[in-house]
Backbone:
């Protein structure tokens, strides 16, 4: 069985950076299966990276290694992390990228991967994706025990992941991500039949799916991770209502 | 031989949706070779998806499985389809995505893939790419006979694919796709030497290839699928002449 | 060991062109590992393609085949090239795409791949990525000796790669590439401690990495290829200072 390495970065696809990481991995672990998870995380946006990672992990096989690089602190004293969380493996900067996954799955081991013999020699300190994280991922899927990368740690950095809270008539929370279709993924629970979501000037009645209402109509659906999603059938809820990450959302449950 | 699964969606690459579909496939069929065909189909644009699929299939090996998800009716009563067309396999919503391929290749079998034991359990009804189509594709390339997915059908949904028609002095048709270079791919036949294409204010003399005319000059070439393509050497015909899908094109053959 | 084929093109990802090249390769050489290096080279920009290729090759394993298609002269008399340079293999139009790599690594063999039995039959002359370069790459990694593709040549086309030059107080050169983060990659050497780079109205003191200065501050770092890179911590140097390819950069070394 070829190990799966899933890559998440904020490198975008306009440069050669993601391809170069893959070249490094294949030089060390040629039998790996590489999967692009997402590379369009907004530059340096650790929270967005953490949310994408959390939304995706459950769909991947046991032992998948997630190589995640959203790393505004590259080259500083922040640690490089190898971690086992739930049934998966992670290699990433220790800056909170794992926070949302750790809110749902147990930490089963973490190491500060500071032994330079598992890094590549490098002219600078700006591309740890290539020089630190890619080789660590490759060595790990190639069979090296992560305890060899450096000392165990118990305190990976956590950043707060916004959570919805119950209010008198339902829930209050916020938009976490806006997707390509203009759907606003929120942190509120799935909308029960008869409930209505409110965000800015928008009123979104609960519906089962986009095609259940007329084109152009707003609706609140149970999104792909089981949470409330605000949409416009055949359109962009984000554009029509000005929704963005952080927009407050209320769900009225009758 | 590892089976090839080629993915075509309107999911774009800014979200984790495509990566998540791949995670599901690898969990069921780890020995597959995954290929991205195109993910930038305009949201919900079934015709564009059908045209891209048709332009691509001939380049892929026998038995390739095309997993195509442009699915504005996700979660409604529209069927999920597993189909054999020509030497390939297809898994897609039954909304016309196969129409252009079916105009050129024989339908050799189709099934309404409604047996939930081949789907994933799902919290909602908005991400059949992950919960229905990806697992069906994976089971099929893993060896499951598609007749187990559900009952055979003979009437996949067809949408009209625009065709050119002969006129007194040549052909009249339209622009089907505009590519990254601003070339306008049409449904007219290849331009014979000495012919001239007309579209809006543009006049495009037949030429063998872009570099055969001076930079900035318009030309009509035989495009990659053997049909008329309108171009500007070293420039964008779409931008210079305002060409877009549906723009009428006439080809004058002397 | 599965051979690695790394693809670099100016095809973008909005069309099916890259996917189609992969389909052709897998039809001939099913056991290959395909890697996307970069597909967003500006249309027809051979110099940009050459620079990306040069920045990436060192990270890839020995025997990797780079399939590079930035080809404004497609279908004209320009040659199709199969070449061994350093420990790698290249298949590409003979238009200078290899120039930057050849400035650093020895040419170990090159062939004008003109034997049509290694090309695909094609309706037109506009998509040699699919009809010429992809099959050549596939035959080569599948074991065909490149000397069978056509006659050996010794004079691949070279284009000038801009080089920095020493001046009285340091170096003068230019911006080569601007990346997604707005970092300006230059052709100047790494900035020693205490040095300062100047570009347009920007003053960039040498620093070790982005996080070593306050957010919003400009800095000059040793970039990933060991050369001077102009940045703004947590921001875009290109946007703030209007840097673009060709912008003159001076490095003052005290």
Residues:
């Amino acid at each position: 069985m070829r190990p799966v390495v899933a890559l998440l970065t904020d490198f975008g696809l306009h440069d050669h950076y993601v391809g170069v990481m893959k070249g490094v991995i294949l030089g060390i672990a040629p039998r790996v299966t590489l999967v692009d998870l997402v590379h369009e995380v907004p530059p340096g946006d650790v929270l967005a990276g953490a949310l994408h990672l959390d939304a995706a992990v459950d769909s991947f096989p046991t032992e998948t290694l997630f190589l995640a690089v959203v790393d505004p602190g590259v080259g500083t004293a922040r640690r490089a992390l190898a971690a086992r969380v739930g049934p998966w493996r992670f290699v990433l900067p220790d800056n909170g990228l794992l926070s949302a996954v750790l809110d749902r799955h147990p930490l089963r081991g973490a190491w500060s991967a500071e032994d330079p013999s598992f890094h590549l020699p490098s002219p600078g300190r700006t591309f740890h994706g290539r020089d630190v994280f890619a080789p660590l991922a490759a060595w790990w899927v190639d069979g090296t025990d992560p305890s060899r990368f450096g000392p165990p740690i118990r305190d990976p950095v956590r950043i707060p992941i916004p959570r919805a809270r119950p209010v008198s008539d339902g829930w209050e929370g916020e938009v976490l991500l806006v997707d390509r279709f203009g759907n606003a993924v929120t942190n509120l629970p799935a909308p029960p039949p008869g409930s209505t979501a409110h965000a800015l000037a928008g009123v979104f009645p609960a519906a089962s799916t986009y095609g259940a209402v007329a084109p152009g109509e707003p609706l609140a659906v149970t999104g792909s991770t089981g949470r409330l999603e605000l949409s416009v059938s055949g359109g962009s809820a984000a554009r029509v209502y000005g929704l963005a990450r952080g927009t407050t959302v209320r769900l009225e449950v009758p």
Q: What stands out?
A: The longest helix of chain B spans residues 128-141. Chain B touches chain A through 34 residues (CB under 8 Å). Chain B has a mean pLDDT of 96. Helices of chain B lie at 17-28, 46-56, 99-102, 128-141, 237-241.
